[in-house]
Structure formats: structure tokens, C-alpha cells
Amino acid sequence: MINEPDIVFRTKGLTKSYRSAAGEVQALRGVDFQAARGEFIVILGPSGSGKSTFLNIVGGLDTATSGEAWFKDHRLTALDARGLTQYRRDHVGFVFQFYNLVPSLTARENVALVTEIARNPMSPEAALALVGLTDRADHFPAQLSGGEQQRVAIARAIAKNPDVLLCDEPTGALDSATGIRVLEVLTEVNRRIGATTLVITHNAAIRDIADRVLRFADGRIVEETVNASRKAPADVSW
Amino acid sequence: MVITPLRRKVLRDLARLWPQSLAIALVLAAGVATMILGNGAYSALSDTRARYYDTSRFADVFADVTRAPRALLDDVRAIDGVLAAEARIVKLGLLDLPEMVEPGTILLVSLPEGGGAGLNRLHLRQGRLPDPQSAREMVVSEGFATAHRLSPGATLTVVMNGQRRDLMITGIALSPEFIYALGPGEMMPDPRRFGIGWLPRESLAGAYDLEGAFSNLVLVLAPGAPIERVIADVDRLTAPYGGTGATARADLTSHAFLDAELKQLGAMVHVLPPIFLLVAAMLVNMTLSRLVTLEREQIGLFKAIGYAPRAIAQHYVEFVLTIAILGIAIGFAAGAWMGAGLARLYARFFSFPFLVFSNDPRIYALAALVTAGAAVTGALFAVRAVLALPPAVAMAPPAPAEYRQQGGTLWRRLGFRQTRIMTARHLMRWPMRTLSGILGVALSVAILVASLWSFGSIERMIDITFFRTERQDVQMVFGQPEPLRAVFAARQMPGVMVAEPFRAAAAQISHRNLLRKVTVIGRPAEPRLSRVLAPDLRPMDMPEAGLILSETLAQVLEVRPGDNVTVTFLDGARRSLTLPVSGVSVGYVGLGATMDIGALNRATGGGQMISGVNLLIDPAGLEEFFDAAAASPKTGFIAVMGLTVARFRATLAENITVMITVYVALAAIIAVGVIYNFSRISLSEQGRELASLRVLGFTRAEVAAILFSELAVIVLLAQPLGWAIGFGMGLAMAGAFSSDLYRVPFVIGPAVYATASLVVCTAAALSALAVRQRINRLDLIEVLKTRE
């Protein structure tokens, strides 16, 4: 099954525990998961349910306590810090709630930051065109609206032609109209470049735009729904 | 005692920011320490000297004569303004010591009659004064006694006027006249080869055929007496007896060398502490500005709940003052420690009966006050802006940093990577901070450039003086001028290969109202051993008529080649004549004037006389030569060039390690302080961006390179600026150190700049490495969850 060409992610018995002042915290309690190439998956769940921890581990930002996580034929749980950096660099696009743009670089330069170190990137202009920001390419983040900043962040994430696109609350800091525009961009990009897309959100309304919806609670996947048909973001009631 | 919440915050902030605080404290400490060291050493030297002079009734005016009747003393005492005068016999003797191949020199000085009273009183360290009736007893100077392990009861063989005499040492003493005891023809005190012996008057009078006569006068003047007029009167009285002109205390070698040391200390106090205080103020400003920006919302909160702006300002001032107090405490300790070290060094060079490194509380208080002032000034500038904000505005997060399109296209065309553009824009976003960083590092380079150049300068002095100018092996100076044929006798001495005569004549040279007393040296028309060099270092032939002046003397007299000067010879017939200046020569020691030996003899009117010979000696015959020279009644003293250079170098080598260590430490403190604080601030501002880049797949090294390239820009831009500032400081110091006594050539080669830059870049690299750890520990997950 590992060699199944269409499987991008696979995890088995993934656990994560932290030692904190309050004692041991179990963030993940055994997550079994797999995702196919080009799939658009929405992950729901309350705060502390482990969804971000899960995304961080499959994104190569964090390490698991036990269990296995695979990206294609890379066993992520066996990689060291250097290996994880290389994995992120070559395969993963990230989109964050607070955009995390470099304030001293323009939209184009923020995208170029990634294309310069990527193996097979598109041009920064093409990435910005995909998110509809061609005319804002020379603006600094401080000169852009929140939605525009998030679209720059998406352009930056997809410019390397990533295999996976991981988005943690991408609309969390945006109003509904802007949020819908961002989701439209995400679904469009998912369709155009075929990157497996995982989107974490608090907003259950977004579930209808996904191929599949996972619900996290208490460190586990407690519900999995496959949508027979996907709605367009504009049709989602917010 | 209840600790208020704000005070508690001061302590917690300090604990949290301890490395940055310590870096600032060390820069402040360096300022305090140099201030205490400089001021303390200055007052220690000048106070000790003043007290010593006072208690020993040190003379104000000194005059040499060839031979004057004792009756003349009454006339001298009668001069208006003279409080006391003494007639002495002062002669050079040769030392015949079994442990030395070359003859040493001893300056023999007669003791005042009637016991210990009189002028220039000796300070007896051991033993007793000689019996006034004894011709076999002597007191010697302490440095000389120590160098030869002589103690009272030992016997010393002295060649006086060609006759060997065994003298018993009865005591060991110090004199205010020889605090800095420099032998004839020497550049550094060498107590092994030069000593002072004090003998009863009669004993010396007998040896030098000066019964009822004297060869030297010392005078103490009434307070406020016009010294110039007294000197003129003394010159008038002594002229018929071979008087070569009286000198004031200020021109006495020992005194003048102490003055030169004081001048250097003064220069240090005026240069180093202000640099440290400036850098410290900049660092405080930089660091506190960032702290205040981070705490902007807290400040708004404090204001909103009713804290007055004053109380908030006081909070930050207290934070900075705590750092300043730490710096002052370290500075006090370091200053006192280095002061004690310097006092030990002085004790080796200067013969004082006592030397207390004064721990004057006023010096400490002033240093503390100035330092705290500099720190608080830096703090107030940082807090000012935030205090002016209304609480509501302050509580809101600051507007995002505005960047402008600064050369983006240009940089892209130049092939700049985005990370380089980040670096450039971040540096330009905070121009004042960037400039402060550059200036700080530049000052650290400058301190090194301004101190390290002196080594090259000393090498140049040695090279010019001993290898290009004074090329003889030995200079043999006669006790008194001899007829020209003495040079043939010298050629017959064992080991002598080449002998070249010279004539030395004391003279006053004047131009307009400018006047200096110098020794005019007569040389053969084409001198081969003791030469004179033009500024382009080519040897100069002696002009048929006319004088060659050293650069320093030409400057002092404001003359150029072609001008005429008036020369009055002070011995013999005291002739006065006008001579043209034919050329200007290089020379670093004393004021020099030279002319053709024949022309000089014609000018003085004393016949064909020579004062001594410069000799090249076959090394194999050196020992035999010294024996013969010591036995010759004509020998006044013998200067051995090789030993002079060796002593000069050895003395410097002793101090060079200490000096380099101190200056490198001072420069490193600044460089580390500036770079460490700068990088911590930069990391604090860009930590979120750098962590984001790590998430995007940038490696640790790539992310660290972004921060390091900022530091590299600062450090690189600082180098040329530091070289320029250091060059200026060095030039000013060379000017400040130069006196009639010696001139310091300002020689500064690429090695000086390279060394300074290497030291500073190393210090910068080390502080950058300290920050590298923090870059490696950036929290990648936290940065995604929080908004700045």
C-alpha cells in the first residue's frame, strides 16, 4: 500500500505527548490516516483536539512520540532536523493564519524568496497570477489588505509546485467575503497544480468544499466524511 | 522593604536580558577604568613629583661652567630673586666593573658641605652619607646599586680624570634630579650602565683639579621670581668661566621625560573614556529603544491605570542605572587593579622615594557620575518618544513597519537574492541604529589603529637613528675638547677600523624672537659613520658654510632652507654670527643642528678641536678596545650603539605585551558589546520572519546567514571609517607626544590596519556565534500561532 502511487500521506498509530508544567499532555493518541494525490481535505475540531499537532508532524515541523508517518516513500518519523528541512523545502507549501510574510519584501519578492531555493518552481509572476494579484506584485505587505496578504502567502506556498499544501486556519483572521475569496483561490490551486491540500479550520461551514472531512477530538480522528459532491466556496453559507 | 511592582520588573528584565546588560556594563566599565587609570596615574605622578621636589628643595635653575672660582657663588646669590644657590662639582667618571665588558658611566656629583642641608637633598635608602673628610667614600643611586647588587660596604672602582680610584659605598640614595636617570647618549634609562655617585666636595675637587672652584650651579628661586631674567643674569656671570647657559628645571632631562609621560596620560584621559562613554550611550539607546518598542503596550497599560510618565521614565532609567552601577563597580575594580600595575611600572622607570597611586575618591566619584550620566542620556532619548504617546495609542500594537521600494529593481538586476534584499532593507529601515553600529565598531578599530601604529613608529625611529644615521659601533666622547690629532691616536687604539671625529659646541640659535639652546655638531664634510639624512633619507654632505637643522628645530624656529639664523656659541669666546640654513634633516631625538667641523671650529674660534670620535670596531678587538678606552685619561664616556638599541628594544618589549593586551581587550569589549547587542536586537525584530523562513524550508545556516550578513555589512563598512578615525587619532597623538625632547614619527603601514581589522572581526565573529545558538533554537511552531 505504501507503494501505491496515488497515496501521498499515510500515518499509523501516530502519537504525540508533551511534558508541561501541568504534567504529561497527550496531543495525539494514535492517528491512522492516509491521503491521495490531489485530495482536498478539511480538518475540523475544537481547540486542543490535536489537529494542528497532526498537521505540523505531517508537514515536517514537529516530530512524533511514536507511530509512523510517511510522505510517499519518505518515512518522516525517521528523518532528523536536516532531513525534515529538506522535506519542507522540496515538497510542502504552508499557509498560516497570520500569513507570516516578510514585511521588508514586496509580494513578488516574498514569492521569489521560495522560488529561489525550490527545485522546480513556477515564476513568482505566474504564482501571483494564480491568486489574482498580478497588479499588486510590487506592494509591501503593509500596503496590502489581510485577504491580499493571505493570497500572497498562498502564492508563496504554491510557487514551488508543492506535492502538498498545508493550511492552518487560513481564513481565521479574515472576514467572510475575504475568506471566501481565499478559499476560492485554494480550491482553484488545488485543481490546477494537483497538490494534496489539508485545511484546518474552526469553521464547520467550510466542510462542503472538501473531498473529505476529518473531525479531530481528544487527539484522535473521530469522524470521517466523504463528500459525494464538492460545493464551490461561494455557495457555502458562512 | 516593599519592592514595588515596577522595581520587581527592573530586576526581572535584568535577569532576562543579562548578556546584553553585561555587554553594556563592560563598555561602561572600560570607560570608568580608563578614566580612573588615566586620572589616577596623572595625579599620582604629578603629585608625587611635586611633593618630592618640595621636600628635597629641588633647584629651579641649573648651570654648567668649565671652572669658576667659589667667590662667584656670592655674586650668584646676590641676583635678585635667588633664594638659595649652591656650587657643585659635577663630572662624568668611568666605571670599571668586572661583570661588564664595556665601561659604564657614572655621574659624580659633589655633596653640599656641612652635612645633609642644601639643595637637591638626597633621600638615603640605606647606609649613611660619606664622611666629608674622606676621599674614599661614596653614595650611589639606588637603580645602579640594585642592578649591580651593591650594598653599603661594597667597593667600586671609578676612573676619575684618568685615574682609577677604589671607593667604598657608604649608602644608597635617590635624588629628585635623577627621577628618570638617562645616561649620556642613551634613549632609555639603563641602570646597569649608568649610575650616579655622590661624593664629598673635597674628594671630587682633588680628582678633577677644582680646588676652590666649581663646575655646576644650582639655584632655588623665590616664589614668583622672573626665571628668564635670573637665567640671563646667571649666564652673564658664568660666561667668562665657560658657562654654557643656565637651564630651567623644565628643560632638565629627568623633569622633561616626566612631563612627556604626563602629557601622554593626559592624552589618554581625553581620548579613551569619551569613546567608551559614547559607545555605551549608543548601546543603551539601541537596546532600550527595542525594549521600549516591545513593551509599548505595557507602557500604555501603565499610563492607562494611572502611572505618570515620570514614573514610567524613572522605571527605565532605573533599569539603565542598575546596568551603569554594575559597569561602574567593574570599572572601579579594574581601574584600581590596572592603576596598581601602572604604579609598579612607574616604580621601575622613575626613581621616587615613594609613589602612592592615589585613590582619590573625587576621581572615582567623577568617573561614576560621568558614566551614569552617559547611560541615562542614552536611556532618555530612547524612552522619550513612547512617553509622549497617549495611552490608547500606546496600548494598540504599533503600525507595521513601513518599507519603501528601495532599489528593489536595482538589486534584482544586480542579482541580489531576496534574503540580501531583506538584509539591506532592514538596515536602511533603522538608519540611526545602523549608523550607531557602524560608528561603534569603527571606534573599536580606531582604538587599535591609534595604539598599534606606535610600534611601527618605534621601529622606524630605531632604523633611522641607529642604522642609517648613527652607524658607528662606539662613540667615544672626550672629557674635554682635544686637538684634532686625537683622532689619529684613536685610530691606533686596538680593534679600531675607522675613526671619524666630531665636535660638539653648545650654542643658542635664534630666528626673529624664537630661540633654542642646542648642541651644534661638527662633522667631516662627507661623514660616513655619524651621518645626517635628508627627509628623503639620502645622506647629506656638510655645507661649506651654513647649518643643517633637524626638522623639529626648523619648525620650532620657523625657518626654511635659505633663511638666516643667529648662532651664539656658549663656550670659549662666545662668538655670535649669522649663518644660513642650508638644509633640513630628519631626526627624532632632541633638537639637532650640524655643520662642517672645520667651519664650526672657525666659527667658535677655538682652533682645530674635536669633542670625540665615532668608531667602527672589529668585534674581535672590542674587549681590548674597551680596556684601552677605560684606561685613557681622555675618555669622558663611551656610548655603545648596539647596547643602546638592545636596551631600547628590551624596555619596549617588556611593555609591548601588556600594552597590546590592554588595547586589544578594550577594542574587543567595544566590538563584542556593539555586535552582540546589535544582533540580539535584530534577531528580536526579525525572529518571527526567520522562523517563518525555516518553516518554508530554509536551513539553519541559510537563516543565520541573513542575520550574519547584516552584521557583516556593519563590520565591513566600519573598517574604512575606523581606519580613518584611527589615523586621525594617531596623527593627533603623535603631535601631542612630540616635544623638544623627541619627536614621534607618524608611520602607519597596512599591517596596522590589517591587525586592527583582524582583531575586531574576530571579536565580531565570536559575538555572532553566541547569537547563532539562539537562531538554532527558533521555535517554528510558536511563530505560526501568534501575531506579532
UniProtKB/TrEMBL annotation, chain A:
InterPro entries reported for this sequence: AAA+_ATPase, ABC_transporter-like_ATP-bd, ABC_transporter-like_CS, MacB-like_ATP-bd, P-loop_NTPase
Listed PROSITE patterns: ABC_TRANSPORTER_1 (PS00211), ABC_TRANSPORTER_2 (PS50893)
UniProt-listed SUPFAM superfamilies: P-loop containing nucleoside triphosphate hydrolases
Keywords: ATP-binding, Cell inner membrane, Cell membrane, Membrane, Nucleotide-binding, Transport
GO CC term, one of those recorded: membrane protein complex
Keyword Cell membrane: yes
Boundaries of every ABC transporter domain copy: 9-238
SMART domains: AAA
GO molecular function, one term: ATP hydrolysis activity
Any Pfam family: ABC_tran
Alphabetized PANTHER family for the sequence: ABC TRANSPORTER ATP-BINDING PROTEIN MG467-RELATED, LIPOPROTEIN-RELEASING SYSTEM ATP-BINDING PROTEIN LOLD
Family named by the database record: Belongs to the ABC transporter superfamily. Macrolide exporter (TC 3.A.1.122) family.
Protein name: Putative ABC transport system ATP-binding protein
TrEMBL record, chain B:
InterPro entries xrefs: ABC3_permease_C, Lipoprotein-release_system, MacB_PCD
Keyword Transmembrane helix on entry: yes
Superkingdom as given in the UniProt entry: Bacteria
Residue ranges of every copy of the ABC3 transporter permease C-terminal domain listed in the record: 275-390, 663-778
Membrane-crossing segments per the record: 21-42, 267-288, 319-343, 363-387, 435-455, 656-678, 703-726, 746-771
Protein's membrane topology: Multi-pass membrane protein
Transmembrane among keywords: yes
A cellular component term, taken from the record's GO annotations: plasma membrane protein complex
One Pfam family hit: FtsX
Alphabetically ordered keywords of this record: Cell membrane, Membrane, Transmembrane, Transmembrane helix
GO BP, sorted A to Z: lipoprotein localization to outer membrane
Domain MacB-like periplasmic core: 22-236
Signal peptide range in chain numbering: none
Main subcellular localisation: membrane
Subcellular location: Cell membrane
Classification via PANTHER family: LIPOPROTEIN-RELEASING SYSTEM TRANSMEMBRANE PROTEIN LOLE
UniProt record similarity statement: Belongs to the ABC-4 integral membrane protein family. LolC/E subfamily.
Name of this chain's protein: Putative ABC transport system permease protein
